[in-house]
Amino acid sequence: MVTREHEDVAAARAVAETVTDPELPMLTLADLGVLREVDLAEDGAVEVTVTPTYSGCPALAEMRTDLRRRLAEAGYPRVRVHTVLSPPWSSSWITERGRRKLAEHGVHPPDDSASGDQGGAGGPVPLTLEPPRRRIRCPRCGCPDTERTSEFGATACKALYRCLGCREPFEYFKEI
Amino acid sequence: MSFDNAYEAVTEAQPDGDTRWAFGTGFVDPLDGVDTTVPAGVDRDGLATYCLMLGDDALVLSHRLSEWTTRAHELEDEVALANIALDLLGQARMLLSRAASVAGDGADEDSLAYFRDEREFRNVRLVELPRGDFGRCVAGLLVFSTWRLAVLSRLTRSADPVLAAVAAKGVKEVTYHRDYAARWAVRLGDGTEYSARRLHQGFADVLPFVPELFTPHELERELARQEVAVDPAPLRPEFDEVLRTVCTTAGTELPEVSTVGTLAGGAGRHGVHTEHLGYLLAEMQSLARSDPEARW
């Protein structure tokens, strides 16, 4: 039997999952993989756990505020937002739905197979002098002939590309 | 929700009392909600100072790199340098917050960034050198990020879980920074005679400050014994190997330079700095000092 409390947790989670990323408004925090947990505390407060994408990403402060506001509007006046740093977020946390929505909005989703060995075991990180080999098709016309214009874009998480078929520039969500 | 003008929208009171400005809220503590317990047996004062060292490196270089905004040769590189500065600022915020919470003396990330004087900064001197030209920027960023990446990749095993987590995030970011600098070093070194000369001069300016990076402060050695910090000294061969690979690919050789002196053995980690840091801090701290109640 589903208890009232379980229903409440599920309902609170459903509300938290609708909050969108301020810089990528086509993605919810759940799509982006930064919403780690939603729970109800003994005192009735909603406990939300999030993790930052990049250390300096200014969107995190906005996300916390939006979570509090959206939950308050949905009838949860007491909200505690916790941050966790470990395990660190990586682009592989973006859900399939998130990837589809990025592509629909002209942002190429991350090709996680292109991420190199980042010395996870605490050893040296290999130097890569060649640009990363990514399989990238133009998200607008599907043309496989694309070129990277900059490894850094308008937000910390994106690189800039250009399609050599339709000549349109587009953004790529970096694998990290 | 609708507003008559943009100002109303950004100043709208939030449920948690924050006012909205630019990016959402007044900056909240970046470690707010993170379990910041200090593990048993770890020297608190030492840990706080070590966090300041790594945090000040990132903060000061972040400020220097931000000076490239409106000054880079191409929009793409301006954006790249601003992104790198932002990553470093994020690392600085977490490290200064960690320093403040461990010390527990009422300081916070803002008071540490804006209300400490030059002698209280613990950054290595490399990061405070003037911006210089793009060749100098590439040489400096390559040296810094190669060194920092070597340190952070080991720090992921720190006995302090917060330092380990900050390092794990930083490794991914600094890998991008080092690759950016390394690819530009190859382009400049392997470009024209003129671009190679500018890169060479850049290395000549920054290499005198390299030995300091691998000379641990006594505190770094002590904390490394406690498996909290990383002793940078054994990482020198790895650093040299990366620079050798870049230079070989770029068809350039590193200039012979003399090491810059210390003050009775003291350098950046002891609070002994070049004349450039004071000017940098004067600019970085002026707003906060003239209006201590300001929020941003």
TrEMBL record, chain A:
- InterPro entries on file: Fe-S_Maturation_MIP18, FSCA_dom_sf, MIP18-like, PaaD-like, Zn_ribbon_PaaD
Q: Where is the PaaD zinc beta ribbon domain?
A: 128-174
Matching entries from Gene3D superfamilies are given as: Fe-S cluster assembly (FSCA) (3.30.300.130)
Q: Where is the MIP18 family-like domain?
A: 13-72
Region: Disordered, residue numbers: 104-129
Xref: PANTHER family:
1,2-PHENYLACETYL-COA EPOXIDASE, SUBUNIT D-RELATED, FE-S PROTEIN MATURATION AUXILIARY FACTOR YITW
The name this protein goes by in its record: Phenylacetate-CoA oxygenase subunit PaaJ
UniProtKB/TrEMBL annotation, chain B:
What SUPFAM superfamilies would the database entry show?
Ferritin-like (SSF47240)
What Pfam family is a match for this entry?
Answer: PaaA_PaaC
> May I have one GO cellular component term?
cytosol
Sorted alphabetically, the Gene Ontology BP terms of this entry are: phenylacetate catabolic process
Q: Which domain of life is it from?
A: Bacteria
UniProt-listed PANTHER family: 1,2-PHENYLACETYL-COA EPOXIDASE, SUBUNIT C, PHENYLACETIC ACID DEGRADATION PROTEIN PAA
State the name under which the record lists this protein: Phenylacetate-CoA oxygenase subunit PaaI
Organism of provenance: Actinopolyspora mortivallis
